[in-house]
Give the backbone structure.
Amino acid sequence: MEDLETMEIDKNQGIQVDAYVKQVQDNNKAGPAAEQPDKSAPKTDTVVISDAAKRILEARAQLDEIPDVREEKVAELRNQVQTGTYQVDAEKAADKLLKEHLRNAVDKELDI
């Protein structure tokens, strides 16, 4: 007859197995391991900028490159005033004044 080894089962071993089974079941309920966040990796903040916001930033950068004062235009007008050759187009000036007045009135009416 063969020698058989006997194995003793401690009732505490059953508790350890039950705890392991419960842990596996909980992990399966939470989803695959690939979806679980890596707890060892440091958390980082992320920012997502929309395409519209990117276009606005690009436009703003282009506007920043344009000088506030067109020095060559100012120099030309200054020269015309000093030499007496500057001429005002009264109709054009009146047209711009009226348009600006109407625009302000509409903005005020719309509470803009």
Residues 51-109 form one domain. The two ends are 102 Å apart (CA to CA).
